[in-house]
Design brief:
The protein is mainly beta. It has 1 helix and 13 strands; from the N terminus they run αβββββββββββββ. It is elongated and about 75 Å long. The protein has one domain.
């Protein structure tokens, strides 16, 4: 592996380490904010939701004469969020939309047949920044236990679609250059493309469609230059 590839790996490790402190405020935490609220069997309405340890308060959203958003504190709705309750309570859904900034890793890429070379699964290092539009869905409901107590469940699902760009490594050798390069080394590529991402609680994964540009003089003979690939993406949310 050459120096540039090693440097790319070190930079991603440092980025992930620096992001560790952000996990407590990550997207999958259910917290205060503007949501689209759906009661069980009811209509969807926009509201500001305040999340406390044992209650949720929902405040309707109004528009003033200037078109500005206002929170109507006079018509709040209090929902129970206790860990356990003695009776069944209605379920609720909360949806929040926002722009999404992630650090992505791409553990493998699938490359189709190119210039007679067989399809490939590449597992070289890849890291990228991702920007997309995201919807986070929180399902609040209570499930009855064998003891007759209803336990709270809050499940989170996130859906995002956007673009990514970053650096990675790839094998450069005679087989992927039509015998135009005699040496074998790990080249640095710039990867770009689009991705669809799904989040379930703290776990984030997705599928990316991308293109690679080899960043050295052998890009003219590299058979995968700007050819499409499919890859699995794993992400860490930054915002």
């Amino acid at each position: 592996m050459n120096r540039r590839t090693t440097l790319c790996g070190c930079l991603l490790v440092l980025a992930l380490a620096g992001c560790g402190s952000l996990r407590e405020s990550s997207k999958y935490a259910f917290k205060d904010g503007f949501y689209r609220v759906r009661p069980a069997g009811g209509r969807v309405a926009r509201a500001y939701v305040a999340v406390a340890e044992d209650t949720i308060q929902s405040f309707p959203i109004l528009r003033d004469g200037n078109g500005q958003t206002q929170v109507d504190t006079s018509r709040r709705v209090v929902l129970v969020l206790a860990e356990s309750v003695p009776r069944s309570l209605p379920s609720f859904g909360f949806v929040q939309s926002s722009f999404d900034l992630d650090v992505l890793t791409i553990p493998f890429k699938y490359r189709p047949v190119s210039q007679g070379f067989p399809r490939q699964f590449n597992t070289n290092f890849n890291g990228a920044l991702y920007l997309g539009y995201r919807s986070d869905v929180y399902r609040l409901r209570y499930r009855r236990t064998p003891l007759g107590v209803y336990r709270r469940q809050v499940r989170h699902y996130g859906f995002s679609f956007g673009v990514f760009g970053g650096l990675g490594a790839t094998a450069v050798n005679p087989w992927v250059t039509n015998n135009q390069v005699a040496a074998e080394y790990d080249g640095v590529v710039f990867s770009k493309g689009v991705a669809a991402i799904v989040g379930i609680d703290a776990f984030t994964f997705g599928l990316g469609l991308g293109f690679d540009d080899l960043l050295d003089g052998n890009r003219r003979v590299w058979i995968y230059q700007r050819r499409p690939w499919l890859g699995l993406t794993l992400g860490l949310n930054l915002n």
